[in-house]
Design goal:
By secondary structure, this protein is mainly beta. The protein is 4% helix and 39% strand.
Length: 247
């Protein structure tokens, strides 16, 4: 709006510098705008500097809450008078654009990798797409998997033909080379229809998503105590994400 009637034609037809600029120019002095005034073909209009917006009276300016706009910051946003500040949660670093965050590589000598489960194995792949290693498994199909970073431990659902032979397995993968200390954790509830799982890295509890029985249930780290968390108004659930820091 600041380019209207500023003496420089920005539109190809010169609309922004038309005769209305002369006709309504004196009206700006009578508009009562708190900040800025612009002349338009429909008359005068008040507008505010960056970080502010026009109030209900159409004249005064008030702080604009940039944090109310989705995507202003990738993580945390704090509104300030006429501006805003982005910040990152623990474990992330702010980026040069002052809006986005990037996970810390801690320890720095451990490169970031992606674990991918298929019907035959679990493989470690670098973020550039190069396969680092194949971690052989005896499972026919892996429908769910999660990784505990600090313990270098991966857990997955070993799916078999029958519910009785479908198990939760966990193993250590030091340096992402191969499985060690592979073991079965006997879960008191059936895992045969579990579509996704997640591990609470604070408590060690396992969260499971059953897309056939339409429920989410949680079991302790030993697998013997399980509780259904949600089974109402849940239709064909496919995924789950945890925030252990929020309890």
């Amino acid at each position: 709006m600041s380019k209207l009637c500023n003496g420089v034609p920005d539109c190809t037809d010169g609309w922004d510098e038309g005769p209305h600029c002369r006709e309504f120019a004196t009206n700006c002095t009578l508009s009562g705008c708190q900040d800025n005034c612009s002349v338009t073909p429909l008359g005068t209009a008040c507008y505010c500097k960056s970080g502010y917006e026009i109030g209900l009276d159409g004249k005064t300016c008030k702080d604009f809450d940039e944090c109310s706009v989705y995507g202003t910051c990738s993580q945390s946003c704090t509104n300030t008078e006429g501006s805003y500040t982005c910040s990152c949660v623990e474990g992330y670093l702010p980026q040069p654009d002052n809006r986005s965050c990037k996970a810390k590589n801690d320890p720095v000598e451990r490169n970031s990798v992606l674990l991918i489960a298929s019907s035959q194995n679990i493989q470690a792949t670098s973020l550039s797409g190069t396969t680092i290693s194949l971690l052989s498994t005896t499972t026919k199909q892996t429908t769910a998997m999660d990784f505990l970073y600090a313990q270098e431990q991966v857990c997955w659902i070993h799916v078999s033909d029958s519910p009785a032979s479908t198990h939760l397995k966990c193993a250590k993968i030091p340096n992402l080379k191969s499985f060690t200390d592979e073991r079965v954790i006997n879960i008191s509830l059936s895992l045969h229809h579990v579509e996704q799982m997640a591990i609470d890295w604070l408590t060690g509890n396992f969260y499971f998503v059953d897309d056939v029985d339409d429920r989410i249930f949680v079991c302790d780290k030993d697998g013997q105590t399980c509780v259904t968390l949600l089974d109402q108004e849940l239709y064909n659930p496919k995924g789950i994400a945890l925030d252990p820091t929020m309890g």
